[in-house]
Amino acid sequence: GAVVSQHPSRVICKSGTSVKIECRSLDFQATTMFWYRQFPKQSLMLMATSNEGSKATYEQGVEKDKFLINHASLTLSTLTVTSAHPEDSSFYICSARDPGGGARTQYFGPGTRLTVL
Amino acid sequence: GIQVEQSPPDLILQEGANSTLRCNFSDSVNNLQWFHQNPWGQLINLFYIPSGTKQNGRLSATTVATERYSLLYISSSQTTDSGVYFCAYETDSWGKLQFGAGTQVVVTP
Asked: How confident is the model at residue A103, as a pLDDT?
């Protein structure tokens, strides 16, 4: 099946710094990727839709200036958490649809656990 | 928005037992899917099932779209089935997913 990778898997940073998370589709081209956030014991909440070559679309309540998304190629989307604060600590997950994969299934990355001190 | 209710919220099973997880919707939804999130956080697609019944090994799923619910059956459970099971539906043509709250499953040896 299709594989989506994320890097790093875990990051600890100081309050006020910025953190970049990469999401890659390894064996397919993804024109659209999605970024989710998951707090402990909670469900996944969609943050934004990342489209290759255009601006990301953010969900209501998600600050676009704080969570910068860049979809520079058909296999790479990045999420940068700017001026991170402890409340940004969470599990960030990306996903991508394989347009050649038949059914409308999404493939998820393994997630990045962000801890802001 | 459409309300998604998953039940039960928690489930403890002894290895070998069978179980049924349920997902109810307050209105019609598009392209219902089931996912398993393992204890390390990885989500795995289980079923894309907008309607009807599908089976994959010990797992099967049934969606009755007209009655706005879907069921996930786990038979002969194994410890590797532990994790959180989510149902989700697409909210637009791009494929944005809205997830239910999930069912936490623990399978004990």
From this structure: 53
- The answer to whether A104 contacts B31, with C-beta atoms less than 8 Å apart, is yes
Indicate the pLDDT class of residue A101, thresholds 50, 70 and 90. Answer: low
Residues 6+ apart with CB under 8 A from B9: B101, B102, B103, B104
Best mutation target among A5, A44, A54, A112 (most B Cβ atoms within 10 Å) is: A44
Taking alpha carbons only, the member of A58, A60, A76 closest to residue A68 is: A58
Q: Which residues pair with A57 in a beta bridge?
A: A49
B77-91 in b/e form (b: 16+ CB < 10 A) is beeebbbbbbbbbbb
Pairing status of strand B103-108 against strand B83-90:
antiparallel
Which chain A residues touch B101 with a CB distance below 8 Å?
A: 42-43
Does A93 reach chain B within 8 Å, measured CB to CB?
Answer: yes
Closest in A105, A110, A111 to B33, CB measured: A105
Range A26-56 burial, b when 16+ CB lie within 10 A, else e: eebebbbbbbbbbeeeebbebbbbbbbeeeb
pLDDT tens string B1-20: 899 999 999 999 999 999 99
